[in-house]
Amino acid sequence: MSDLSAIDILVNPDEGTLGHARAWNARMRESVPDGFALDATHQPHITTLQRYVRTHELEQVGAAVEQTLREIDTHALAYQGVAIRHGEWGVPGQGLAVILVSPSPQVLEFQAMLLAAIDPFTAPGGTSSAFVTDDGEEITQSTFDWVEGYVPGQIGSAYTPHITVGFATVEDLESIEAEPFEVFDIRPESLAIYQLGNNGTARRLLMSWPIGT
Known about the structure:
Blueprint: E1 4-13, H1 15-31, E2 46-54, H2 58-70, E3 79-88, E4 94-103, H3 105-118, H4 141-148, H5 150-153, E5 162-169, H6 170-177, E6 184-186, E7 188-196, E8 202-210
Helix pairs in contact: 2-3
């Protein structure tokens, strides 16, 4: 067992949002057919916090997250999907596409509470063994860097929540991003901890809790 696990504390959205994500994923795979499909091991989600934690303390991490969830008004955790955006991620000429999400102020407060709650169980320096991988798969340096730098790079006002929907060529993405986008509400259905795979994918469910919105 690895000394460290790369985890994602995330929000699982409602079925309507999953439908949006799958439709966009299908469109991305028209551009890059060998890009990943959204499925049981590439779960559409909204990340709240990513960290390396000590594997033998995962139960304590879960208990800290559950206690934090009890202390907030989950009805105030509100999100909207507002645009398609991309970043160039690993493969020249391709971009990793996301549905950009706008969070309510309470989401940022919740993130800060989670960060404080699990901080005693975190450690730097995760290796490939911290992630879920397929046979022969190597974790990209950009994935290592993203998890290592999530704090402070994606905390508070720097937080850019999103739902990853796949790879496409940069040319196609620029065309897609120029199209009108219909803003939609996102309803959180559960909070979960997943072990991460390559490119920030949620690969292995470790524990989850319903959110009563």
